[in-house]
Design a protein that fits this description.
- It is built from four helices and eight strands, in the order H-E-E-E-H-E-E-H-H-E-E-E.
- It is α+β, with helices and mostly antiparallel strands and about 160 residues long.
- The chain has one domain: Pnp Oxidase, Chain A.
- The longest helix is centred in the first third of the chain and has 15 residues.
- The mean pLDDT is about 95.
Length: about 160
């Protein structure tokens, strides 16, 4: 196994184990807003189930551009400057309840988050979004920064600061 294979494994582990993502959306005043939302990764996309009561929902409906960040738990990191983290940028789109994907994704939300989903799934103010990431980076530690590439942003290329 190569160093890139190890780094890819670490990225996928971070992505798939993160219970949620920090969201960067553009507010009505054109200033960035940062928030948090639980998520699931399925079929190459990040799915969010968001309430209209949250400003990030209105922000995404108005402007689908979004930044996502997943970061290693501080207690698990040996150094706060070297926490594993991934930053992704892409576009969010609504997934209608009638869409074929809705039930598959919702089943994954139920498996991951349990009973709370039975309460919030039927609420009419909640909407499902799929984020298609177009660009991204993964920091594994000091001197270990990677550009995420490929159709599903699951391929890594080392970022060389000397170039």
């Amino acid at each position: 196994m190569t160093d890139l294979d190890d780094a890819r494994e670490d990225f996928l582990k971070l992505r798939d184990s993160a219970p949620g993502v920090q969201l960067a959306t553009l507010g009505e005043d054109h200033l960035p807003e940062v928030s948090y939302a639980p998520c699931v990764w399925l079929e190459g996309g990040c799915y969010l189930y968001l309430s209209e009561l949250s400003s990030h929902t209105a922000n995404l409906k108005r402007n689908p551009g979004v930044g996502l960040m997943m970061i290693e738990d501080a207690a698990a990191a040996p150094n706060p400057f070297a926490r594993k983290r991934a930053s992704l940028r892409g576009l969010a789109s609504l997934v209608a309840r009638e869409d074929d994907r809705f039930d598959r994704v919702m089943a994954t939300f139920h498996l991951r988050f349990g009973g709370v989903m039975q309460i919030i799934e039927p609420l009419p103010d909640f909407h499902m979004f799929r984020v298609e990431a177009a660009t991204g980076s993964f920091v594994r530690g000091f001197g270990q920064a990677y550009q995420l590439t490929g159709d599903m942003l699951d391929q890594l290329a080392h970022i060389d600061p000397t170039k």
